[in-house]
Write a structure and sequence with these properties.
The protein is mainly alpha-helical and 105 residues long. It is 67% helix and 6% strand. The protein is globular. It starts with a helix and ends with a helix.
Length: 105
């Protein structure tokens, strides 16, 4: 499982021209996302926010984070959505409590 300190190594491997190494890194990232989404997202955000990291790693981290937050696969989107929050048709995020209070008004 990828930790913050070795995420840079995994992201580098995911860009490798060596197919075996790249596939292993991609599987590692997919497993990390599936097993501990919160740590996965935080690790990607930390990688993205660190100025000293390689630009390509930061780009990949940003794309992976964006893709994980806006998954095209409905099942994945539901599983990784923050609990109690919902996206409100492009107008931002609202809490479940707020949404419920509107529904009953």
């Amino acid at each position: 499982m990828a930790q913050v300190q070795d995420l840079t190594v995994v992201l580098n491997a995911a860009q490798s021209p060596n197919v075996e190494e790249r596939l292993k890194a991609e599987k590692h990232l997919a497993d990390f996302e599936e097993q501990d989404y919160n740590s996965f997202a935080l690790s990607l955000a930390a990688e993205l926010a660190t100025d000293g990291k390689a630009e390509t790693n930061r780009q990949i981290a940003g794309l992976m984070l964006k893709n994980s937050l806006d998954a095209r696969d409905y099942k994945k989107k539901v599983c990784t959505a923050p609990t109690g929050l919902s996206f409100n048709g492009g107008r931002g995020i609202e809490s479940g409590a707020y949404k419920a209070s509107i529904a009953f008004s």
